[in-house]
Amino acid sequence: MFRYFRSMQYALNGLIYALRTERNVQIWLGIAIITIGIAFWLEVSQTELLIILLWMFLIGVSEYLNTSIEKLADRVTMERDEQIKHVKDIAAGATFLASIGAIVTGLIIFVPKILEKFESTP
Ligand SMILES: Nc1ncnc2c1ncn2[C@@H]1O[C@H](COP(=O)(O)OP(=O)(O)OP(=O)(O)O)[C@@H](O)[C@H]1O
């Protein structure tokens, strides 16, 4: 049990460290907070909110993994290396893929509600 709490402490340290030092993680958190604000403003359904949260966390997870892989790659070598380039590009590709999914989902959920809001305003 004690080991479990110690692992959680390490995980929390990682979450906080990346949040304090990595610009991309900070941007992710900022966008996530704004998106949730918009979701409440547009009064999305519970299911829609769950979908939005899932995408938000998926991007967060991929951003954290991407950051971790980048750090490990930099530890392997700071010299120009073709394999390191591929490793970093593929890791970045994962976040990019998740972002495309989130943007498409956001458009599908938000655009009709935004149009509805403006149409109903006198
Ligand atoms: N050692 C290297 N050898 C070859 N190419 C590299 C190397 N390091 C980085 N690159 C290339 O530069 C790109 C950017 O890498 P970098 O480590 O600067 O990450 P980044 O995209 O700036 O991410 P962040 O903004 O999170 O730091 C990589 O995707 C890769 O194409």
Automatic annotation (TrEMBL):
InterPro entries: DAGK, DAGK_sf, UDPK. Keywords: ATP-binding, Cell membrane, Kinase, Lipid biosynthesis, Lipid metabolism, Membrane, Nucleotide-binding, Phospholipid biosynthesis, Phospholipid metabolism, Transferase, Transmembrane, Transmembrane helix. It holds the Pfam family DAGK_prokar. It comes from the Bacteria. The chain crosses the membrane at residues 25-43, 49-69, 90-111. The keyword Transferase applies. The keyword Secreted does not apply. GO terms for molecular function: kinase activity. It is found in: Cell membrane. It is a multi-pass membrane protein. PANTHER family: DIACYLGLYCEROL KINASE. Belongs to the bacterial diacylglycerol kinase family. This is Diacylglycerol kinase.
